Amino acid sequence: MDTSYQLTTTDILTIILPTYLTPLILPNVAIAEIINYEAITECENELPAWCIGYFNWRGREVPLIAFDAFTDPEIGYSLDASHRIAIINAVTETTLPFYAIVSKGIPKLLRLRATDLDDLEGVEHASERIRILVNDEETIIPNLDYLEKAVRSEIPASKDLIMKK
């Protein structure tokens, strides 16, 4: 039996999300779904620089965030059909079961081993758990707890949105 494709206990299945600055690495179990870019619902509520807006996914309004704007609030981005949206499973709050991160391009599946990772110094923001080198490319493992708390505390719940007409 060929065992070259079987997972070992040291394998980590991940998704690499390209962003405007540094790609993110997320465990694949954190992602509910990756979808094509959807039209964003504009609202009149004041939103933080990192919150792009909301979109409808499976009958609920889901907040969409731009990860890069946590460290660079002035970053400019324009969304189009080349972008993807990664729906993230929230883990600590049942009133916010999902939020989403915009991906600049098509995410990639990557199987990592601990021996593939090299830690880097210099986390720039609380939104980052750690910076690592993967195949000689700098990547970020985001702090999902921080992101979820920021979304929950700093942007309005969908029931409190005032949509633009």
Short key terms for the protein model shown above:
165 residues, mainly beta, disordered N terminus
In words, what does this structure look like?
The chain has two helices and eleven strands. It is globular. The strands form three sheets. A five-stranded mixed beta sheet has the order 3-6-7-5-4, with no helix packed on it. Strands 2-1-8 form a three-stranded antiparallel beta sheet, with no helix packed on it. The protein is mainly beta. Mean pLDDT is 83; it is low at 1-7. The protein has helices spanning 68-71, 144-154; strands at residues 11-17, 24-27, 31-36, 51-57, 60-65, 84-89, 98-103, 108-113, 118-120, 128-134, 137-142.
